[in-house]
């Protein structure tokens, strides 16, 4: 269809401001999950490529850190403007490589634009602190210093937004970046690197190395000159990275899965709750870390909610995301589809009741794609696997409860803690919920997706390791606090001793 937007047949790495072939000259086909059309070939780079990128980044970073932060920020303003100009093309390419429907692709690109302008503003802040010294004629302050070379590893489900959450704060803070994008979605990385190239970012400050986690990712994690790893992806991979970084005392920021729930209380606006559930469970075909995959519903409204959900689910149009009328796109690849199918089987064996969906769409119009029908289970219990494990597909399970307190307990009774939501009209429950829901993000009267970039993004427990993407908190990942003492007394003053 619009494959003309993609000029390249084979992508190259972006190292030291140049487009270069990977050392091993190996490639993998990137396919559109909506129709299996081949979009491009992505290089599977080797250790040598990573080493070159890190060396380059190390040199470039020394100079970049000396550029005043407001000037560094100007590059991000230009990046934001270029993204804005190309928003429609970027969105269409994003839909082709990832599958998400075009409206959502536009939303994701917008998220990146927002991040550019927000982090550009940070270039005129990057606030430190001044603190009174315990001694006379002595000045004490804490400043943010860049960490050096940072490694970012980004997923296929938000290939441009998450890349901006990590690279923009890193760059404005004076770091250089080595970036490994997901091999399923390299085109967003290619487009963003081209935009950086045009924005006037000095060579070597951003480097893109395409390839696998086991080769490129692993080399980055072990490279002594990469001082921080920022990763978003699966729980298994994140845990392995954390262990490896732990051995090296390397700073690591992890954003992993979720098992996010919408709580629907007996006083909820059921029509609004239905809309919120539909959007956060089936948008992006459920392939968001923040996707709703559990609905914890008060038993008094369970049946009415089921009816409403079923009737609205029937209206969901599924198909190629480039068609503006479609609301649900394909699943990223065969592996993703198989995992979803397994969970459907598990759910049925566990005794949950399948009310809708549960199957691969294989009619003629879906023949060449990777589509799964939006699925609703009911009468699930909190301990079932379908109510505990991340499925990453358009599958949602209703869990009936008897009280608000029980709802909170069920919400918190999972390994993850990314996002949660409660639909209620009771102001006391609103405030109790924001206090008691053990997740990094809490919504009231909205679904579990839709985080805004100037607020911290991340979660508790198995979702991460205490760091946050986006928001001002992201700067904590990409800077070190440096304590600076200036003694202007002209004599030696010993802290803790010469205090009288
Ligand atoms: C993700 O799924 O990893 O809050 C990111 C949201 C989006 C970001 C999702 N703004 O759903």
From TrEMBL:
Entry keyword annotation includes Oxidoreductase: yes
Molecular function terms, GO-annotated: aldehyde dehydrogenase (NAD+) activity
Entry keyword NAD: yes
Keywords of the record: NAD, Oxidoreductase
Pfam families for the chain: Aldedh
InterPro entries in alphabetical order: Ald_DH/histidinol_DH, Ald_DH_C, Ald_DH_CS_CYS, Ald_DH_CS_GLU, Ald_DH_N, Aldehyde_DH_dom, ALDH7A1-like
Subunit and interaction comment: Homotetramer.
Family: Belongs to the aldehyde dehydrogenase family.
Name listed for the protein in its UniProt record: 3-sulfolactaldehyde dehydrogenase
